């Protein structure tokens, strides 16, 4: 046989490793299903019954491609956000939209700024398009807005990434703090404000932003509060010229039809999202109680997960994580010190948390051996 | 406000136009739904009842991300194709996988070869990554394999695109012809063999290809025969080093969970796909009859649509198309002469084709005025 395909240098340079190993892969390795699925910040409480019914009703219609303009869902989102439909773009989860955003702005060698230990999939996309990542450390377990903006100015960043509430720590800044930060964004830098967990945050966490502000794009998702992680519906809100630019690169027919229709139904069920936020609050409290009972500390969280500070180093936390997984509890943890002293536990059902209460002391003991 | 984001030159150069305008956009313009949806080569016969049931059962579980490795679906596909799971990658429709394929191979300025008038979404991706498209004309309404390979050699193409059966003409080459062509692929060129419509083609249309052959990647989809266009499940089969490379760039968690599970159920329902192929065959015959009754000619087709030769030029065909749409029949047509003397009509239900039989003579008359 002859020579294979010729990959460009950039592609050759990329690692073959993947950002996350999913729970199904781990279950196949373990040879049994997890007893509690608390690692991916999914919503164990599920989507609105309206969304479930809408998706079931649409199942037989799935022979049709989805509306490539996402008209109805976009219109409802715009109404609720107080923007125009031209300020909104839908995509295959925030992951998909982050990819498009990096592709739109980052040419090989361009600088991008993020926090060391923030969302790995953003970094995956930046590497994938040849961007150069500059990372600043967390400060007191918070993303350090001042340091991010200083670094962005220093390296003339095309993008600066900030998640609020933050993943993996669950910490947050008030909307006011972010509003003030907007004026410090360097000319020509776009702030990527990832608000995946905003539904769980205290009132006032979402900054008021003029939808035509060219300095920022905010990202939202149906994967967390709305319980539709497997549907893949994320969206970005920003100035019209930026939103139009996504049409140059996105997979126009990339969205699942039932997902589009399910997301619209989910969005309209205000009761359900309120209920879920309440259930998540109760679950976070219980995780705090379970942690305390084992002598470890749940950190405050504005998201649907809790970072539990194990009080030692990363090696210890990794040992605890490994023991939890071996005992059938799927959890994840921060990648970078000193945040990697924690494990990250998603809000679970009471039954999930019963398992956690049973298994956490065992895992802590195993790790101490 | 300050300066907006700084787009790289490549992005600035891209047009804001989109590859296809969907039927929903046209319906909103018309102010009423289409009477017959025959423009996007969807399967009006729908997916297997097994797939519908599987997706409905999974609706409440959609709070979970899909298995990012697509393990179960990939295993079943591999079994049926006689390859290993390491020869298969899943993606968000062939559209998604074409995008990844172009990204993997094409750096700005790299040459790519296709037929003039072949799939526009492939061209969209090539432009989007800065590739330089070289187009060769159809020959007797067939993609011209010799000309494609000659051009690929001449311009040292990274990719050469061939759809078999062809879209938009429905013409095809035998598997044997393609097998012989494999040895003429230039060193370092990858043949992208788009087999989206293969389920409808005569036996022997799919070439036998060694899965480890580094010169070709074949693309298949659940959007056509399997009736899951709105689910967004496509796959590529190729040599393991190439398939591994997709993991460097794909949106690992980009697939819809219910779609993944629905596709697996659809794949296992051999009876349904046989039935659909039969129904499509009957529909194509009826389109032939309807065309003949109006004095126009349906061309032979190995796909789930028919190119109907109107016997005049592109302006005339465009006028007929416009009249069909105004009368409530969604159809499309080839973009490039001389194929643009045709309109392209997807296989419809008997009720759809009753509408076509009623409306086609009216549209032909309108266009002749």
UniProtKB/TrEMBL annotation, chains A, B:
Span of domain Aminotransferase class I/classII large: 38-360
Record's keyword terms, sorted: Aminotransferase, Pyridoxal phosphate, Transferase
Cofactors named for this entry: pyridoxal 5'-phosphate
Pfam families: Aminotran_1_2
Top-level taxon in the UniProt lineage: Bacteria
Pathway(s) the chain acts in: Amino-acid biosynthesis
GO molecular function: pyridoxal phosphate binding; transaminase activity
Listed InterPro entries: Aminotrans_II_pyridoxalP_BS (IPR001917), Aminotransferase_I/II_large (IPR004839), HistidinolP_aminotransfase (IPR050106), PyrdxlP-dep_Trfase (IPR015424), PyrdxlP-dep_Trfase_major (IPR015421), PyrdxlP-dep_Trfase_small (IPR015422)
Membership in a protein family: Belongs to the class-II pyridoxal-phosphate-dependent aminotransferase family. Histidinol-phosphate aminotransferase subfamily.
PANTHER family per the UniProt record, alphabetical: HISTIDINOL-PHOSPHATE AMINOTRANSFERASE 2 (PTHR43643), INDUCIBLE LYSINE DECARBOXYLASE (PTHR43643:SF2)
Protein name per its UniProtKB record: Pyridoxal phosphate-dependent aminotransferase
Species of the source: Thalassococcus profundi
